[in-house]
Automatic annotation (TrEMBL):
Name by which UniProt lists this protein: Probable nicotinate-nucleotide adenylyltransferase
CDD domains for this protein: NMNAT
Gene3D superfamilies: HUPs (3.40.50.620)
Keyword annotations: ATP-binding, NAD, Nucleotide-binding, Nucleotidyltransferase, Pyridine nucleotide biosynthesis, Transferase
Leader sequence residues: none
Domain Cytidyltransferase-like: 6-161
Annotated HAMAP family: NaMN_adenylyltr (MF_00244)
Organism for this UniProt entry: Halobacillus mangrovi
Gene for this chain: nadD
Length: 190
């Protein structure tokens, strides 16, 4: 049996904050792997700014240097709204021997009671919350908390910086930075 961390998100683009979350959760929970799953259509926010294929390629580039990390196209392949419960049912069917840990940022913990089919989802995964300042913890849903260094990086800020012509170097892995520049994503110049 493998202990697999799942880090879902839009990854529009993936950044060092995502990688730090995954690495700290992996170490804290002694996970065998962490799978990064870009969403097709996230249920809780507007659609992604770039195509799913580009977001998947950026995630692949972001995780390529860590042997414990891998990118998965499960939600991009399935299409439709990316409800976590549907993804986890699929993964449990495909990998029944694995134990899954769903990693979420502290900003999402307080919204867990409103997640689609949360009662069913709680039976499929153990939630791992990465502590983030400014958010309260909801005791209604059992969550294992992981402490990480406070690093305020967001994909929306990165997109804004790129659109304004500002550098995002050191906010994203170099391989992601070069992919963004090469493909002129988010208004970036080559």
């Amino acid at each position: 049996m493998k202990r697999i961390g799942i880090l879902g998100g839009t990854f529009d683009p993936p950044h060092h904050g995502h990688l730090i979350m995954a690495e700290y959760a992996r170490n804290d929970l002694d996970l065998d792997e962490v799978w990064f799953i870009p969403s097709h259509v996230p249920p809780h926010k507007q659609g992604a700014k770039v195509a799913g294929e580009d977001r998947l390629r950026m995630v692949q580039k972001a995780v390529e240097s860590n042997p414990y990390f891998q990118a998965s196209d499960v939600e991009l392949t399935r299409k439709g709204t990316s409800y976590t419960v549907d993804t986890m049912k699929y993964l449990k069917d495909q990998f029944p021997e694995n134990e899954f840990y769903f990693i979420i940022g502290g900003d999402m913990v307080e919204h867990l009671p409103q997640w689609h089919k949360i009662d069913e989802l709680q039976n499929l995964v153990q939630f791992v919350g990465v502590k983030r300042s400014g958010y309260r913890w909801n005791p209604e849903i059992p969550v294992h908390f992981v402490e990480i260094p406070l690093i305020e990086i967001s994909s929306s800020n990165i997109r804004e910086r790129l659109f304004s012509g500002n550098s995002v170097r050191y906010l994203v892995p170099d391989s992601v930075y070069h992919f963004i520049k090469e493909h002129k994503l988010y208004g970036a110049e080559s």
